[in-house]
Specification:
Elements lengths: L5 H14 L10 H21 L2 H10 L7 H12 L6 H13 L3 H13 L7 H13 L3 H9 L10 H12 L8 H10 L6 H13 L3 H13 L6 H13 L7 H13 L6 H13 L3 H13 L6 H13 L3 H13 L6 H13 L3 H13 L6 H13 L3 H13 L6 H13 L3 H13 L6 H13 L3 H12 L7 H11 L6 H13 L1
């Protein structure tokens, strides 16, 4: 049997002498410490499950706690029993549990304990999650206060936490006024705004209709050597096109449009559609047509709405040759016109005084499976009224009634004006009564024409009856009606007292 050499026996003693300490106990190594922390966390979870959540919630809502919460006590006791320090994972579990139970009052005790008792660094994602939770529950002041206190928790705030706070503030119109002060404070906290921050701010400004400030932010980004992305331009562009302000001009929209292309971003299909729709609504038919041509040049197939808005703009500018070409192109590309497209095209025919062609389009629409609506019939009715074809207007009117089209005030006003222009004043009075029975009011000028026509034919009684019926609905006659009535009194003095009393009653009302 071979004995070990004496030198091998001296190795452990030599190891201990050189380091002047004894070897660690196997029960005090790092893996054992981590194991005890995991055991403490499991104990904490079991204690939370064993507790009655309903009683905790009722106690926290009726009497807001002034002492550490139940879950916080469980955390402290669980880790104390294993003689180890609480971990971030344990605190995160307690915070999530309190959020699930909506015990936001007890969160303050947990955060205070983290701030004053613990000494480990807290990662920023903990505060980002809390800020999002506060914002979701409308606790904006708590979210702002937590953001300002992040440095006290041994954490360096970055643009990540700032963006999370900006996102919830910019979604609330009342909280937007706090944003300037927040940005100044974040600068003192050494947080520099990034492209993502500007994107959130631009979204918030566009959402409340302050697109002018959004454009200024875009320009500020460029001056500060930041690079706006295509999404920001699209957001500003679509918001500009949705503006219905009379001060909004096509120049501002086209400036953003050109800036977007100069920045190297290719407009999307939605961007083209927004610009075409805006230009068409502004009556800039030629500009809308040019954008449509550019859209096709970029290889983007326009949809029916784009063609419809371009047609609308051309009709408003009376570019009827281009209207015909564009409508034919729409059909050649295999697109199916909808009722709005047909209405725009029929309106163009009416402006060209092609009322019969407009009427024939109704039959074509029905054959193609696109039933005409009230706007279609009103457009055709208006076309016949412009060319003084009362018989055709009556035909359209009877067809509307026969097909059960629900008439509106515009329908009655068109037909009433056509009857008065055609000299059918008695029939106009009957339709006026029907119109008033449906709570529709006539145009002021049409009302004057009816009264003047009745007086001109010597029908003073009918004129007074009409005057009384319409004025009872709040429509007062003009000077032409009174002059006609007073002129008619020279022929029939029996109605002088009635007219004067009616005049006095109207002014008293």
């Amino acid at each position: 049997m071979i004995r070990p050499s004496s030198s091998s026996k001296k190795i452990p003693n030599l190891f201990l002498r050189r380091r002047r300490k004894w070897a660690h106990s196997p029960y005090k190594t790092r893996w054992h410490y981590i194991f005890t922390q995991q055991q403490a966390l499991q104990t904490l979870k079991k204690s939370c499950l064993s507790s009655n959540p309903d009683s905790i919630i009722q106690q926290s809502t009726q009497n807001p706690p002034k002492t550490p919460s139940h879950l916080l006590n469980c955390l402290i006791n669980s880790f104390a029993s294993y003689q180890c320090d609480p971990t971030l994972c344990a605190y995160n579990f307690v915070i999530k549990t309190l959020i699930q139970k909506s015990q936001f009052n007890e969160l303050d005790h947990v955060l205070s304990h983290l701030l004053n008792v613990e000494n480990f660094d807290i990662p920023e994602w903990v505060f980002v999650d809390l800020i999002k939770v506060y914002g979701k529950n409308g606790m904006f002041e708590e979210a702002i206060d937590l953001f300002y206190r992040i440095p006290k928790f041994r954490c360096v705030p970055t643009v990540l936490s700032l963006n999370s706070l900006l996102f919830i503030l910019c979604r609330n119109k009342e909280c937007l006024r706090i944003v300037p002060q927040l940005l100044l404070k974040s600068k003192c906290m050494n947080i520099r705004l990034e492209e993502s921050s500007f994107s959130i701010l631009i979204y918030g400004l566009c959402r409340i209709g302050r697109v002018d400030f959004a454009i200024k932010l875009l320009n500020y980004m460029i001056n500060d050597e930041l690079h706006p992305n295509g999404r920001m331009y699209s957001m500003v562009l679509s918001s500009l096109c949705r503006q219905k302000s009379v001060n909004m001009t096509s120049i501002e929209v086209m400036c953003v449009w050109e800036d977007m292309k100069r920045a190297g971003f290719r407009p999307r299909k939605e961007d083209f559609c927004s610009v075409i729709k805006f230009l068409g609504r502004q009556g800039k038919g030629k500009d809308a047509f040019d954008v449509l041509v550019e859209m096709k040049r970029e290889g983007i197939k326009p949809d029916v709405k784009s063609y419809t808005m371009a047609l609308y703009g051309l009709v408003e500018e009376s570019e009827f040759c281009r209207v015909e070409e564009l409508f034919d192109e729409l059909l050649i590309f295999g697109l199916v016109p909808d009722v709005h497209t047909y209405n725009v095209y029929i309106k163009g025919l009416g402006k060209q005084k092609k009322a019969n062609d407009a009427y024939l389009m109704i039959g074509s629409m029905e054959e193609l499976g696109c039933p005409p609506n009230l706007i279609t019939y009103n457009t055709v009715l208006e076309a016949f009224c412009k060319v003084d074809e009362l018989s055709k207007a009556r035909e359209v009117w009877s067809e509307m009634r026969k097909k059960g089209i629900e008439l509106n005030d515009h329908s009655y006003r068109l037909m009433l004006d056509a009857l008065v222009t055609g000299g059918e004043v008695i029939e106009a009075c009957k339709m006026l009564e029907e119109m008033l029975s449906k709570s529709f009011l006539p145009m002021f000028c049409t009302f004057d024409k009816i009264v003047c026509s009745l007086c001109h034919e010597g029908l003073i009684s009918e004129a007074l009856h009409t005057l009384e019926g319409v004025s009872s609905h709040g429509v007062l006659p003009g000077s032409m009606s009174w002059e006609s009535l007073l002129h008619g009194l020279n022929l029939n003095l029996d109605h002088v007292g009635v007219v004067l009393s009616s005049l006095a009653n109207l002014h008293e009302d």
